[in-house]
Amino acid sequence: MNNSVITFFIVLIGFSSSANSIILSEAIISRGKDTIRSNVAKAVSPIITSIVNANGGKPGLGLAYTNMNAGDAWYRLYDNMQLFSVNPASHSLIGAWYLETAPICTESDVDCHEPWWYGRWGDQEVLEIEFIERVYNHDISLRFDMPQKNKLAECLGCLTQTPMRYGDMTGDGAPEIVLFLGDSMVIFSTKLHKVIFSTLLDLDDAMPWQDQIDAGLILDPNDKASPQYGSKVLYENVNSTSIGYRGYAKIYLDDFNNDTRRDIVMWRKFYQSRLKNDATPGFEKVRDTWVHYSLDGGEYKLQATDSAT
Fold it and tell me: Strands of 184-189's sheet, edge to edge?
């Protein structure tokens, strides 16, 4: 079983703990006949499938599975955003959970509009308001994306190649499941059986202006007041564009408020495209934002900590 120490993450996504290193171990990644696993894990795999099917599960393609190196409870991640847990020894289903939030709108409620975080963690997740307004106003989904469908795999490198890991993220001595779903990091509690934290690590809403013209958008290539990069999200979803955005998140874990529990502090950096009449190519920083989460009932909750502190 491969392990990834936190200092390894500092380079990739700025994931760090100032007190102690956190080790995230990799789950078994399903690669068909090329799957690397022990004889026990190989024997367990068809039993997991049998239990899931026997309990009415039709989850789709299994991506990874693990028993977190201890116990009879095995967890398997499927490509429909479902996580199943089974006990092969007793041939029983422990549970099945969707990682995404459920819709709040019904088919009959035509005036209802899903919140921007539908299909993600929930209203505790923080994103830049400019990007939220863009996707919300154009009814664009930000639902979790599975690794094999992800267009940003090269941005997060090997993290998306091993989308399921586990380790003690909260500091309570028990492991959580850590998922890298496309450009998002998701922490799933095996105690609460729910997502307790998530964030968009890489906000990539940028496409060169000329590329959008070449792709068929009616834009003035000589307008120096236009941005160097347009919106990739608008282009791909509504065949339109606006100024391009980029953003990145760094995650820090420690007991920042001295309550003996491991907090999460997130540093978000947000950029927008420079204009064509700007002699400097690329993007300019709009702002830095610091966000503080503290454990409350086993789930990370937003705190009213001033970002300036």
Answer: 3-5, 23-26, 164-167, 176-181, 184-189, 194-200
In sequence order, the 6+-apart residues with CB closer than 8 A to the CB of 196 are 170, 176, 187, 188, 189, 298, 299, 300
Place 309 in a pLDDT band, splitting at 50, 70 and 90.
Answer: low
Strands 15-17 vs 245-254: parallel, antiparallel or unpaired: parallel
Match 């380790």 to its residue by tokens: 167
> From CA 286, how far away is CA 268, in angstroms rounded?
11
Nearest one of 294, 280, 119, 131 to 204, comparing CA atoms: 131
Name every residue whose Cβ is closer than 8 Å to that of residue 170 and which is 6 or more positions away in sequence: 176, 189, 196, 261, 262, 295, 298
Beta strands in the chain (DSSP E): 3-5, 15-17, 23-26, 28-29, 62-66, 74-78, 82-87, 92-98, 164-167, 176-181, 184-189, 194-200, 202-205, 207-208, 229-230, 245-254, 263-273, 283-296, 299-302
Give the Cα separation of 286 and 105 in Å (integer).
Answer: 34
C-beta atoms surrounding 76 within 10 Å: 27
**DSSP letters spanning 40-85:** HHHHHHHHHHHHHHHTT-----EEEEE-TTSSS-EEEEETTSEEEE
Here the tokens at position 107 are: 């088919």
Q: What are phi and psi of 224, to 5 degrees?
A: -70, -15
Highest mean pLDDT among 58-72, 108-122, 148-162, 284-298: 284-298
C-alpha 305/C-alpha 207 separation (Å) is 35
CB 185 within 8 A of CB 162: no
Which residue in this structure is represented by tokens 């006990």? 87
